[in-house]
Amino acid sequence: MAKPETTGHAKIPRSRADKLFDIVNYTLLTVILLIVLYPLYFVVISSFSEPTAVNSGSVALWPKGFTLEGYRIILENGDVWSGYAHTILYTALDVALGLALMIPAGYALSRRDLVGRNWFMFGIVFTMFFSGGMIPTYMIVKDLHMVNTIWALVVPSAVSAYHLIVVRTFFQTSIPEEMLEAAKMDGCSMFRFFFRMAVPLSAPIIAVMALFNAVAQWNSYFPALIYLQDGSLYPLQLILRGILISSQLSAQGADSGIADPDSIVESQRYAELIKYALIMVASVPVLALYPFLQRYFVKGIMIGSIKG
Amino acid sequence: MRMRKRELSSLALVLSTAALLAGCAGSGKSGGTANEDDFHESGLPIVDKPITLRIAGTYDERTGSNWNELETIKELNKDTNVQEDWNLVPGTDWANKRKITLASGDLPDVVLDLTNSEVVTGGAQGMFIPLEDLIAKYAPNLTAFLAKYPEVRQAITAPDGHIYSLPLANMSQYKHADGNSLWINKEWLKKIGMEMPTTTEDFKKMLEAFKAQDMDGDGNPNNEIPLTGIYGDSLYGLGYLFGSFNTMDNTFIVQDDKVQFVRSTPEYKNAIDYLHSLYAEGLIDPETFTQNSSQLIAKISSGKKASVGAFFAWSADQNTNADYRWDYGSPIIPLKGPDGYQITPRNNLQLSPAMFVITKADKHPKATMRWVDRAYEPELSLKLREGPNRLKKMDDGTYDIIENPKNYTAGEWKVKETPYNSFVYGFSQEMRDKERLPKPKPGQLDPDFDEWYQALIPYMKSWVFPDILFTNDQYKTIEQYQTDIQAYTDKMAAQWITKGGIDKDWDGYVQTLNKMGLSDYIKVYQDGYDTNKKNLEK
Amino acid sequence: MKTSVAWKRIVRNWQVYVLLLPVLVHFAVFQYAPMYGLQIAFKDFIAIDGIWGSPWVGFEHFDRFFHSYQFWNTLKNTLLINLYELIFDFPIAIVFALMLNQVTRLRFKKWVQTITYAPHFISAVVLVGMLFIFLSPRTGMINNLIALFGGERINFLGEAAWFKPIYVLSEVWQTTGWNAIIYLAALTAVDPQHHEAAIVDGASKLQRVRHIDLPSIMPVIMILLILKVGHFASLGFQKVLLMQNTLNIDSSEVVQTYVYKTGLLGTQFSYSAAIGLFDNVINFVLLILMNQLAKRLKQQSLF
């Protein structure tokens, strides 16, 4: 049965209103779960189905025209495996670098004794709206000799203004001012306080940032497209895009008269065949990350630390 | 000491071809003469010391991105001492990659597969070098091809008179035939006791019968689709029917050297009116306006039995289910309209002018030109187009077509070992004649057969706007009007076909178009056409 | 002197600046150094001349956009879709997080969380593909249901009026679980003592959610709300583009799809930069207004 949860109030007998609340809550969540689940299930069964059956709407509860062809095409491509390896490496580096930069900075920005705090914040928010665009950024990366190296994919994307703001807000709301004052009284230095108190208290936000950076890096292909010349460094997503000739967007080639019709229809069938399998291949590994990180979403550590 | 030896050998080379080299020293701008010294005007290798060209482009996934392993590329490079460092990205991402490559100035030696306006702009800015002199001197195969097809030379010549890009060209005459045709279920025709319709009137009667009766015999007369397609699509669109109203489903047509904007003409109005009369009776699938080609193909091929009476495509057998694909047949020639018109476009041949440019970063433009010219050599062009595996050269100089193996689809087999449509070739009718193509079985004709083209010739009108390059300013003007006018006319057409009201709206519609700048839009095309015509006459 | 006081505080707190410094360097290099590129919105970008060397054209690109036939319609659609997202998408994630936070069965909670966040990984192409399949007037299951109950089949994707609801609802499906993650993390910081005290006072669960959980994540909500308002003039264009057709174009053409289409022919760096700049000036002004409003209301603000 439900263990006494960390909130620690399960021992008190539930009132009728609470029972009703629970019933409504669980029912609603179950309904939401099913609504979200069905299209996901549809993706799964479609990935094993004949594409024309999927598109004609006759796939509903189980795969039709069962085929593993989509998976075969994807997994037989030798680049996919090296793509996985690269993506895992880039993701790990991106997460490590992102956390190393953003957690201290987010904490610093949350401090009231940071002179010019609002100006720093303004400067960071400003970049969310105004940027020099692709070309100057490319030039900078090139001048740093990062083009065609993994650093071009990891370093510029490690920090995002949005994530930084979330970290800062978390620190601002979750670490009470009096805690800092108490620490100061004890003669605790800023570094010491940050590493000994703030970091341990921020497990949930570290988990969230790790997840956000990991997912962003996992799904990204554009920097790789722009900065890499060498196909041997390509991450998974770029390789998968190569396999999927996105029919909707490239069919415009038909109008220019280059492509032969039979070749268009074939590459389209091809694309339809692997469309759903591709999502599975690309996402299942990173989907597994979330349940793993959830263990850090735990309440009540803070209280102990303040009292103790 | 080694240095000295090399100097000596290159000196010998210079002496042996002294006269010719003196000629090209003037044309070659820069690039360091040291590199040019070991270049050969003719024969192999092209250069004594191997050079590597950095080439950026895109690839067909069925080919893969490792072009150095392709049989055709190996043949292209053979004994030339020219090697390539291919920087290839997936098709959908190529536009982005290309834009940043060109804009950042971080240029490779050669760029493949650009847009026409990029070529004109980049050429005018000096980013790409003019090629006409290099072609004349070092590209005998291409020169011969351009002499045979002046329209190709015309299509790659920028309005400033320079040639900045090399084409991919398939000049087989059968490509004049329009790929958009009508396919009708012949079994259903038998059931309702009708012949293949020859007029728009009969066609409508046929669709009415398809709608009224239970054609697929499942007891439900309402689940058949009389007619489907994809509105506005060049292959699956409704354009075929426009010929019955003496017009074409193109943005611009040229009649007696005058450029017409089709969608403000009375002929167009009549065509839309007819389509509405079909739609109003529920004869056109409502999803014609929303579906994409994957959904259309699913619709016409997924059922155990055919559930679609008629559809638009270039062929039935490649789009429908193998069980009933030969149930569908085409009237081939256009239906006769109410005023007796039945025309079909004589399309431009398959030509992509902006396939290959040499950038100013290339230190070996002459060697590059000699190397790429090999792709226009007739036999290698044939292999690049049809795939080296599919051809078997016979003693009489013809080529037998080898069927694709079981584990390959026809397309995969064709694309294998060639860069396919992502590189250049020049394919002529002459080479097509040398292919021993399979004869069509009765009732199995489609636009890939010469017989189909022959049947259409009497109905063809050469009204299609030619393949030309505009000036940079003209492209800007086109850009300015194109999106808005296209969106507005598309929207109105869809509205008129589905809901009617064209008579009431027409005058206001034409007025709105004029307000949107239609006359300026037409003028750009007229100017482009006139310049082109003048140049062609020269 | 005031500055010397400030300086003293900076020196005393030097360690905070050390923590901040790496990120400042990152922003300086990757954000501020390239910012000279903004000028191409006022120039006619010519690749060979580079950004500095291209000729100035003033407000020509803006002028062209403001006077384009589609300007008001695209702006209206963009803002409306964002408004609908703000009304539906934004609060649903909060409510969902609050509901999920009350679940004491950990396994159930974990399942719900993992499954609801999964749609984030579905690409726009596949999402729109599924919309077509589910909503097809002939074979789609939604229409089959409607027909089953005797209703008239609806060509959902072919009706201008249906475009925005479908867009926003599919967005809710795809983003709710993902957006809830931040709130769920913030909810872990709620002091359990407050709950215990409230329980002793006889507060029901619903009351505690309203009076303890919600207020304690309010700062996070405010910050995300400010940031959301700061994206009001922008919209990811790929999904819109895929859902668009000639029948629904009147309600589906947004600024970003329009720019994409007008830029198809050429490179158009300057034109799209100008429209991007216009969007972001609107966004930024909205963000500042929202931020000041939050300050006025004594709520959490960005700066």
From TrEMBL, chain A:
<dbReference type="Pfam" id="PF00528">
    <property type="entry name" value="BPD_transp_1"/>
</dbReference>
<dbReference type="InterPro" id="IPR035906">
    <property type="entry name" value="MetI-like_sf"/>
</dbReference>
<keyword id="KW-0813">Transport</keyword>
<feature type="transmembrane region" description="Helical">
    <location>
        <begin position="20"/>
        <end position="41"/>
    </location>
</feature>
<comment type="similarity">
    <text>Belongs to the binding-protein-dependent transport system permease family.</text>
</comment>
<dbReference type="InterPro" id="IPR000515">
    <property type="entry name" value="MetI-like"/>
</dbReference>
<dbReference type="GO" id="GO:0055085">
    <property type="term" value="P:transmembrane transport"/>
</dbReference>
<feature type="transmembrane region" description="Helical">
    <location>
        <begin position="150"/>
        <end position="171"/>
    </location>
</feature>
<keyword id="KW-1003">Cell membrane</keyword>
<keyword id="KW-0812">Transmembrane</keyword>
<feature type="transmembrane region" description="Helical">
    <location>
        <begin position="193"/>
        <end position="215"/>
    </location>
</feature>
<feature type="transmembrane region" description="Helical">
    <location>
        <begin position="273"/>
        <end position="293"/>
    </location>
</feature>
<feature type="domain" description="ABC transmembrane type-1">
    <location>
        <begin position="84"/>
        <end position="291"/>
    </location>
</feature>
<feature type="transmembrane region" description="Helical">
    <location>
        <begin position="88"/>
        <end position="107"/>
    </location>
</feature>
<keyword id="KW-0472">Membrane</keyword>
From TrEMBL, chain B:
<feature type="signal peptide">
    <location>
        <begin position="1"/>
        <end position="21"/>
    </location>
</feature>
<protein>
    <submittedName>
        <fullName>Extracellular solute-binding protein</fullName>
    </submittedName>
</protein>
<dbReference type="InterPro" id="IPR050490">
    <property type="entry name" value="Bact_solute-bd_prot1"/>
</dbReference>
<keyword id="KW-0732">Signal</keyword>
From TrEMBL, chain C:
<feature type="transmembrane region" description="Helical">
    <location>
        <begin position="115"/>
        <end position="135"/>
    </location>
</feature>
<feature type="transmembrane region" description="Helical">
    <location>
        <begin position="217"/>
        <end position="237"/>
    </location>
</feature>
<keyword id="KW-0472">Membrane</keyword>
<dbReference type="InterPro" id="IPR000515">
    <property type="entry name" value="MetI-like"/>
</dbReference>
<comment type="similarity">
    <text>Belongs to the binding-protein-dependent transport system permease family.</text>
</comment>
<keyword id="KW-1003">Cell membrane</keyword>
<feature type="transmembrane region" description="Helical">
    <location>
        <begin position="269"/>
        <end position="290"/>
    </location>
</feature>
<dbReference type="InterPro" id="IPR050809">
    <property type="entry name" value="UgpAE/MalFG_permease"/>
</dbReference>
<dbReference type="Pfam" id="PF00528">
    <property type="entry name" value="BPD_transp_1"/>
</dbReference>
<dbReference type="InterPro" id="IPR035906">
    <property type="entry name" value="MetI-like_sf"/>
</dbReference>
<dbReference type="GO" id="GO:0055085">
    <property type="term" value="P:transmembrane transport"/>
</dbReference>
<dbReference type="GO" id="GO:0005886">
    <property type="term" value="C:plasma membrane"/>
</dbReference>
<keyword id="KW-0813">Transport</keyword>
<protein>
    <submittedName>
        <fullName>Sugar ABC transporter permease</fullName>
    </submittedName>
</protein>
<keyword id="KW-1133">Transmembrane helix</keyword>
